[in-house]
Write a structure and sequence with these properties.
By secondary structure, the chain is mostly helical. It has two domains: 1-35; 44-196, Cytochrome Bc1 Complex, Chain D, domain 2 (Orthogonal Bundle). The protein is 44% helix and 11% strand. The strands form two sheets. A two-stranded antiparallel sheet has the order 1-2. The protein has a two-stranded antiparallel sheet with strand order 3-4. The longest helix is centred in the N-terminal third of the chain and has 30 residues, at 6-35. It is elongated and about 80 Å long. The structure holds heme C. Heme C is lined by residues 93-94, 97, 99, 101-103, 112-114, 116, 119, 122, 124, 145, 152-154, 156-159, 161, 171.
């Protein structure tokens, strides 16, 4: 086959596409394994049964989530099936109410309201716990989500989205799980904000 023949270039194009298709499929399989819950980069859903914290990792020069000890949501440890169902519901609530129209998740969404990736670790919940008269952070989050207008703390107010208690609990489970994801330090300086408050 001559270098100036159309067949040569056609065969070249077809083989490059074929090889790259295989590479793309392999990368997709690899990424899906890494980003599923319990994969190499994402904690299992059962992480919501544990205490999640945040600390500066000097080797990586970023803040990383820490997971240690038992601290189940609402004091009730749940099985992996139960937490998967709860977090799945939380995700549907978040999608159906378009929380992303105002908030960002992992940096995706709108910039009207705070990023929610590490919201679970926001020290602001201490203040919300006081104003909602809740016995725990998760209860304060549920009360806020069910009535954000009543418990507003900012110049911008989150609208009343009429979440049921069940829906709010599922959202809180989702937010707790999300806070344990190692996001390579995103959002930047979140740890500094929390310690300087
Ligand atoms: C119309 C815009 C808007 C929409 C839609 C919206 N929010 Fe908000 N959200 C806000 C604003 C503004 C605040 C800050 C309110 C305050 O501090 O009083 C806020 C605050 C929050 C906080 C507290 C964040 C923190 O750590 O300080 C959480 C959690 C939250 N929203 C969750 C949600 C969820 C879940 C949804 C969807 C079910 C949602 N929001 C939909 C505007 C919105």
């Amino acid at each position: 086959m001559q270098i100036d023949s159309p067949q040569f270039w056609r065969a070249g194009a077809i083989s490059v596409i074929a090889v790259m298709t295989v590479v793309l499929i392999m990368l997709t399989i690899d990424s899906l394994a890494a980003i599923r819950s319990g994969g190499t980069h994402v904690p299992p859903y059962t992480v919501i049964n544990q205490k999640i914290g945040y600390k500066y990792d000097s080797a990586r020069a970023i803040d990383v989530p820490t997971v240690a000890g038992d601290e189940p949501l609402f004091g009730r440890a749940e099985t992996s099936e139960q937490v998967a169902a709860l977090i799945g519901k939380g995700k549907l609530v978040i999608q159906s109410r378009s929380c992303m129209n105002c908030h960002t998740f992992f940096g995706n969404g709108a910039y009207y309201a705070p990023d929610l990736t590490k919201s679970w670790l926001d020290p602001g919940w201490d203040a919300w716990q006081a104003i909602t008269a809740a016995g725990s952070k998760e209860e304060a989050m549920v009360r806020f989500l069910m009535d954000p207008v009543k418990f507003r703390t900012w110049t911008r107010t989150m609208p009343q989205l009429n979440l049921t208690r069940e829906e709010a609990v599922a959202v809180v489970a989702y937010l707790k799980w999300m806070s344990a994801v190692d996001t390579n330090g995103f959002p930047a300086n979140f740890g500094l904000i929390s310690t300087s408050r």
